[in-house]
Write a structure and sequence with these properties.
Sporulation protein YtxC; Spore_YtxC; four-stranded mixed sheet; alpha/beta
């Protein structure tokens, strides 16, 4: 089998990926004056293992060297974005949706596997073929994948807009907290299914007590519900200092508190909470 690449970087990427999978495979590289880089796979016969290795390697080349430009083209030509900063943010989200393996991106794409589709497309083109032209496959043989890619970019745009709205929400709350006179000098907050709140003396706040405080603050201006207990009490109290005791400082809930209150927050380990811990709502 002869495989042709126009780009030197792409042929090097292909070879590196191929040899990672099969160090014994025999490949001869020469430059063809008319058709560019020509790789000859000197294996007889070409069995399914070799076909799979070639397909995986072609997918790797496509993802590393072609995916960005195709996604950016869709962002601009299909969804009409022109701002460079927005295009970059949407691209990063789209790449994550297409290539990511975490549960969030899998849920967004409804457990479909774009990389497996790419592999199937390349396998279809290389089986029983003596000449394989990477650029021709990319330009003419990716209709099904590109349709999926348009959908994934649309999902990325939805995520981008949600993040923009969330950031605007965070900024509004941050500005409010900066201007508002603190209601208390210090509050202890303990992580759990729901945050638990304690006076600086260690005495726990009850829901009745917090609800009374929250009613005095125009929370409706921020769209904060009165029955939300992980952020609303902190906005109502606007403490000068927050000691936050959590096991996972990277959790979205903790990061939201940090983004709003910034230098007012002192994060400590859950085990370092110095008072008696009560499950919020049962005190």
């Amino acid at each position: 089998m002869d495989i042709f690449f126009e780009s030197d970087k792409e042929v090097i990427c292909f070879c590196e990926r191929l040899f990672q999978q099969n160090k014994q495979i025999a490949v001869y590289w020469q430059v063809n004056a008319k058709r560019g880089n020509q790789l000859t796979i000197n294996e007889e016969p070409l069995n399914e293992i070799i076909y799979q290795s070639i397909a995986v390697s072609l997918v790797d080349v496509y993802v590393k060297h072609r995916l960005r430009s195709i996604i950016n083209e869709i962002i601009q030509d299909t969804y009409y974005f022109s701002d460079g900063h927005e295009i970059e943010q949407i691209y990063e989200l789209a790449e994550w949706i297409v290539t990511g393996e975490d549960k969030d991106c899998k849920m967004l794409r409804k457990n479909k596997h774009p990389i497996q589709l790419l592999r199937a497309i390349f396998l279809m083109h290389i089986r029983n073929a003596q000449d394989v032209h990477f650029d021709w496959i990319v330009q003419t043989g990716m209709k099904a994948f590109k349709q999926d890619l348009i959908h994934y970019v649309g999902l990325a745009i939805d995520e981008f807009k949600r993040e923009e709205e969330h950031q605007s929400f965070i900024n509004t709350l941050r500005e409010y907290i900066i201007k508002k006179e603190p209601a208390v000098p210090l509050i202890h907050v303990v992580g759990g299914n729901t945050f638990s709140y304690y006076h600086f003396t260690g005495k726990p706040y009850s829901k009745v007590e917090l609800r009374s405080i929250m009613k005095k603050v125009p929370l409706y201006l921020f769209g904060l519900p009165e029955d939300e207990w992980n952020l609303t009490p902190l906005i109502a109290l606007a403490p000068q200092k927050i000691k936050l005791y959590v096991d996972d400082s990277s959790s979205p809930r903790t990061q939201t508190v940090l983004n709003i209150f910034q230098e007012r927050v002192d994060i400590q380990s859950f085990k370092d909470f110095p008072y008696t811990y009560f499950t919020f709502g049962n005190k």
